[in-house]
């Protein structure tokens, strides 16, 4: 075990995995670009193909969580709710406290067969991020600038296109709008006090516009809202760098299912319902802090082999020529070739580190505290 942990910590292995992810991602993005000719001919086929392509990329990240780091994910919910996973269109609400919260969500999507078709309401800046933003673009992910007057037309039209989506999807919403930090929490609670809303201890004040709009546009398509509250055993603070280094975490997810017909259709009443939901999420987090677990029965879905097999396929295809090339450079004795290859490794390292930086809490932006940001709620 100590040897395995040591191997996982080796930078060269992490770099090779990053190389596989980046190069396979570029290949997948190119194939996605080629599939655009299918859109006017057969939109359903275009979507099915892109779901499979997205799965091939995202499952590599899920593989890191499940197989490389061995992170455990336990659900706190009932069997009746689990039986509906992957069999209906839903909106999923997840707290935004951790660097890898999205990865835990993707893991659940993968285990129930909907990773490729999962959706999210994402900030517009992510559209410019190579691989991630480009793949999301072809997947018809809804992007917003978090300025309602600018977003209104784009968000409505993007959501409207998803009404006839052929694959079951989980539409992820981070209603808090940004990751939780103490500084943002203080400002958020000042807003709550000014609006006469109950203060939250473990969450930011939810931004209701995104939720009410998504629910309104997808009504008739989505049948339920899943409220997911995430926490980690032993006060762990997981990071993507920790996952890449093979560090194991223990994630607990409380999942509650709310049928759409039980949620108010009126926008103001729906906003009130969402605020109440976050008060309940806060109570769940308080219970977790005291008891070390969420209330209710537990279910641990088994990891599937497909993420590992998918990664091994790409690693076999891409690493064989890379290793042969590196060997050729080494035995050539050419200083120019050797220096060029070292420069390539440095650039690759920086690029991969910047991609990881997208997930880091300290580097994520927010309009909290920006006096020029227009409040949408």
Task: Please give a quick description of this structure.
The protein is α/β, with parallel strands linked by helices. 52% of the residues lie in helices and 11% in strands.
Order of helices and strands: HHHEHEHEHEHEHHEHEHEHH
Estimated share of beta-strand residues: 5-15%
Poorly predicted runs: 369-377
Number of strands: 8
Pfam families: Acyltransf_C (PF16076), Acyltransferase (PF01553)
Family: Belongs to the 1-acyl-sn-glycerol-3-phosphate acyltransferase family.
GO molecular function: acyltransferase activity
InterPro entries: Acyltransf_C, Plipid/glycerol_acylTrfase
Structure write-up:
- This is Phospholipid/glycerol acyltransferase domain-containing protein.
- Belongs to the 1-acyl-sn-glycerol-3-phosphate acyltransferase family.
- GO terms for molecular function: acyltransferase activity.
- With 377 residues, the protein is of the alpha/beta class.
- Helix content is 52%, strand content 11%.
- It has helices at 2-9, 11-34, 43-68, 79-82, 101-111, 132-138, 148-161, 182-194, 208-217, 240-244, 267-291, 306-332, 335-357; strands at residues 72-76, 90-94, 119-123, 142-144, 170-173, 224-232, 250-259, 298-299.
- It has an eight-stranded mixed β-sheet with strand order 4-3-5-2-6-7-1-8.
- Helix 6 links the parallel strand 3 (119-123) and strand 4.
- Helix 3 (43-68) packs across helix 12 and helix 9 (208-217) packs across helix 11.
- The longest helix has 27 residues, at 306-332.
- The protein starts with a helix and ends in a 20-residue tail after the last helix.
